[in-house]
Amino acid sequence: MKKLRLLLYASLVFVLILPLAACSNEPTEIRVAEVTRSIFYAPQYVALEKGFFEDEGISVDLKTTWGGDKTMTTLLSDGADVALVGSETSIYVKARGANDPVINFAQLTQTDGTFLVAREEQPDFKWEDLKGSTFLGQRKGGMPQMVGEYVLKQKGIDPHEDLNLIQNVEFANIPNAFASGTGDYVQLFEPTASVFEREGKGHIVASFGTESGHVPYTVFMAKQSYMNENKESIEKFTRALHKAQTWVQEHSAKEIAEVIQPYFEDSDLELIEIVVDRYKSQGSFATDPILDKEEWNNLKAIMDEAGELPEDVQHSTLVNTDIAKDVIKK
């Protein structure tokens, strides 16, 4: 009888422990809201397709929220755990007196991702050629527009005095507006810029990313409360991202294009390769997830020049580099 009781007890313990063991192997879900779907974010899609998140026990639920304001609203309302968006948005949130600030923890891109596209071919383009032209710019207060104005001013052009500057067109409608005849020049992301070249609708004459220097253009960020409660998950997420960044640096544009193609079904492989090569050649993809002070200060200088810096927020206030540094060290 005693042996029978021990056997029953052991069986009961096994039955109770088995589900707990199974649960412990379940991946941790992290809901990510990306500001747009872009080849500019190639390392993120590499991390997803190559299984780097899965290797870390992370399940990423990725959704595109189309715009900085919508992305940040999604994050603040707990519709996402992590946002992929420009660092300037975290400064705007801080300036509005948020009790739960948004912390930048892993950088994805380190230059502006837009290009200057002219309606006519200009093999001998000079920045001064813009004077007196109609320029179809980006949304006021957003990183593309602020970087665009910063570069123009560095080139001796006052965007509000020397240009007929158009800023009232919605982000998604800018390419169609230019294609329909609005503007002599336009500031466009890839792959639209290369598509326009293919179709003869415009010609890339300069890169804002090359001209503006390193800046935390697109960064993974989360609310401080989420960071505090999910430090291990954030570390795993960052480790997976760093693996992807290293993979991107070590592989060709063609190999990268082949991996990320499922995220761009409307673009052929050759076009994706062209865009990846352009971004990789100008150093747009961050080589590691660390957002350093120099980049942060460059961001603030660009925002200040555009009259959009609400307050001088220190790097240590809204940036956590400890996790990224630990990941690289390990």
UniProtKB/TrEMBL annotation:
**Cited InterPro entries:** SsuA/THI5
A single GO CC term for this protein reads:
periplasmic space
Subcellular localization(s) per the UniProt record: Periplasm
Q: Where is the signal peptide?
A: 1-24
Instruction: Outline the extent of the SsuA/THI5-like domain.
Output: 42-251
Q: Which Pfam families match?
A: NMT1
Q: Which UniProt keywords apply?
A: Signal
Protein origin, superkingdom: Bacteria
The family annotation for this protein states: Belongs to the bacterial solute-binding protein SsuA/TauA family.
Q: What is this protein called?
A: SsuA/THI5-like domain-containing protein
